[in-house]
Write a structure and sequence with these properties.
This protein is mainly alpha-helical and about 375 residues long. The protein is about 55% helix and about 5% strand. The protein has helices spanning about 20-30, 30-50, 60-65, 95-110, 115-135, 135-150, 170-175, 185-195, 210-225, 235-240, 245-265, 290-295, 300-315, 325, 330-335, 350-370, and strands at about 165-170, 200-205, 230-235, 265-270, 320. Strands 2-1-3-4-5 form a five-stranded parallel beta sheet, sandwiched between helices. The longest helix is centred in the last third of the chain and has 23 residues, at about 350-370. The protein is globular.
Length: about 375
């Protein structure tokens, strides 16, 4: 079983997960004993903030679990269910620019359609070796070799006669939380498309931290150059968290849909906003989550979804609801089981559910073509 996952996001600029920033800053300032003491205090604070006393999956939750004798999962986002707390000795890796660059390059080439099967196996072997030896130099040499392999891949040009699937969006579409990222929902959908269209190609433009403005200004021009037959668009999830007004989201999404309709033959499938207030991370009461928690409240989700329903009807876009399985879950535990340890991004099971939901919409949009 694969034991690593890029759960955070390969973001543009200096954006990173908040809790990861905090850990890296503290690790730079403190010795090992200080780091461990900080983690103990932070874990206890998280436990005290938790309403029902159960250790959460979300931000800081693994720290609480570690204090209670469980195991720890940690950045650079490798599943590490068999790793003890002493594996925090590997924390210097958190600050390594080479790892961050490798992560960004991995997502870039995956999004361009590179088959990652061999890379994933080699990466898993490299991290497994590091777990045994703690030889950081050996790990970095292995990753540099893989980086050279990634850089050598150049996707062939996209031609109008090809069947091309383009994904637009942010970290969830990028593959955040999947282990490995090539098991993200976009790539699961691509595999299904290849059963109908064996030569179908995928171009995943999604980038962690993306807002609708970024999708409009950066992702859309590239999407148009790919001559897509299918476009999936997960819009507004970061806008919601960052407090962007619904009116601005409307303008950005409307522009994207107008351009795709006018300049491509693509069938467009877009999702409603999932209920972020049910994500494990936003059930915590940590101060740094307070603003985001307020921004993902139910009335704002409903406001955004009203915008998406209106635009979908106006432009003839197929609308799906990737949050439906969260709304209809029988318990919060059932919801938690679908998320990676950061409490925001879906794990493999969550990605599989999202793929099923999007596939249903794509089949409806393609019905005259696929029959």
């Amino acid at each position: 079983m694969c034991r690593f996952a890029f759960v955070g996001e390969a973001r543009s600029g200096s954006q990173e997960t908040e809790w990861g920033d905090a850990v890296r800053r503290r690790h730079a300032q403190l010795g090992l004993s200080g780091v461990l003491a900080t983690l103990v205090v932070f874990g206890l604070q998280v436990g005290a903030a938790w309403p029902d006393g159960a250790p959460p999956i979300g931000v800081g939750g693994q720290l609480t679990a570690a204090i209670q004798g469980a195991k720890l999962e940690f950045w650079p986002q490798r599943f590490a269910a068999d790793r003890p707390l002493l594996s925090l000795l590997s924390l210097p890796l958190l600050r390594d620019r080479e790892l961050k660059q490798f992560k960004g390059l991995y997502f870039q080439k995956l999004g361009q359609g590179m088959d990652m099967a061999e890379v994933d196996r080699a990466m898993e072997a490299a991290f497994a070796r590091y777990d045994r030896t703690r030889d950081r130099g050996q790990l970095m040499r292995a990753l540099r070799d893989l980086e050279a392999r990634l850089r050598a891949y150049q996707p062939p040009p996209y031609a109008e006669e090809q069947f091309v699937y383009v994904a637009m969006g942010a970290s969830i579409s990028q593959g955040g939380g999947a282990s490995p990222a090539s098991r993200g929902w976009v790539y699961l959908v691509h595999k299904r498309l290849r059963r109908l269209f064996p030569a179908a190609r995928v171009r995943n433009l999604a980038v962690g931290g993306t807002t609708t403005r970024h999708a409009r200004e950066v992702q859309l021009p590239e999407a148009l150059r790919c001559h897509p037959d299918v476009v999936t668009y997960t819009a507004g999830m970061n806008d919601l968290q960052y407090g962007v007004a619904a009116a601005e989201v409307r303008r950005n999404v409307d522009f994207v849909l107008v351009q795709l309709r006018a300049k491509t033959r693509a069938k467009i499938v877009m999702t409603l906003m999932p209920p972020g207030y049910r994500f494990p991370a936003f059930r915590l009461t940590l101060p740094k989550l307070r603003d985001r928690k307020r921004n993902v409240r139910p009335e704002r989700v409903a406001q955004f979804n009203g915008v998406f329903r209106d635009l979908a009807a106006r432009h003839g876009v197929q609308l799906v609801d990737i949050g439906s399985f969260l709304v209809h879950a029988n318990s919060q535990a059932e919801v938690d089981a679908l998320f990676s340890f950061d409490g925001v991004h879906p794990n493999n099971a969550g990605h599989a559910k999202i793929a099923d939901i999007f596939w249903s919409g794509i089949r409806k949009a393609l019905k005259p073509v696929s029959e």
